[in-house]
Each structure stands twice: as structure tokens, then as C-alpha cells.
Amino acid sequence: MKYNNEANEDLSVMLYDEPENPVVNSCFFKDKKMDYSIESVQELDNYLESVRGTPLDGREIVKIVLRSGSYIGEVIRSKSACKINWLEYDEAIKISSYLQGEKKSLGCVHMLHSEIETFIFPMAKVLKRLENGEQDSVVSFVKVAISEF
Predict the structure, then answer these.
(1) How many domains does the chain have?
(2) At 114, is the secondary structure helix, strand, or coil?
């Protein structure tokens, strides 16, 4: 199985530190401590709320979702009691009959796979957060994922 850990680690840093190709409203992160802590996930949640009402084109949405989802995933990976790796959709469908019935989409283009054969979808959570607002907090998502894995 081919893991995608390095690429998602890089994407997570690009959320808050990519001067050549920043996310919309990247200045939000200027004085924030993005250290992969639960507190930094709260900052990310605040960022997502700040861009929620902004008109975004498709490229900007993809950039925000991939980078924010990767950041969330890296927090989960670093704090989880079990081993978790990033998989791209094409690798995941090889091992999951459930995913074989799902179409490839932004929400499942990259996902976490745990050693206990569970999938976690941080990109899908970011999309829900952008769509539904505070009721779909990424902080709660991360806390639950960490406690269960």
C-alpha cells in the first residue's frame, strides 16, 4: 500500500506558511501559533468561519479544503494512540469495499486510514464546516478522532 504521508504533511504547512501561493485571508495566521495542538485547531476553526462568507472560486475552495484537512489530519496523526496514515482515494478503494461504491470527490480525495482499519475524512469535515458553520466544528471532530483512535 502506498501512503501519502509526506505530501499531506507538506500541505498542512502550506495552510499557514506559503507566501508564493497563499490561501485566501492567509494573514489570519500571522500571529497564530500553528503547532499542531488542539488550540491551533481552534484557530483553524476560527479561520474557516472567517472565510465562510467570502465568495470563493473553485480553486480557492480546493486549496482551503486540502490544506485545512491536511492540517487537521496531521493533528490527529500526531496525537492518536494508534498508527494512522494518509491514503489517496485510488489506494483506499483497493482495500475498502465501502469506498468502491463512492465516487471520488474533494471530500475523499485524501483520507486517513488507521491500523484498526478505520477511515477518517478530514477534507469532508472541512467542506461541512464551510457549508454548515459552527455546528460542524473541526475542533470537536479532532477531539473525537483522537479519543477513538
Answers:
(1) 1
(2) strand
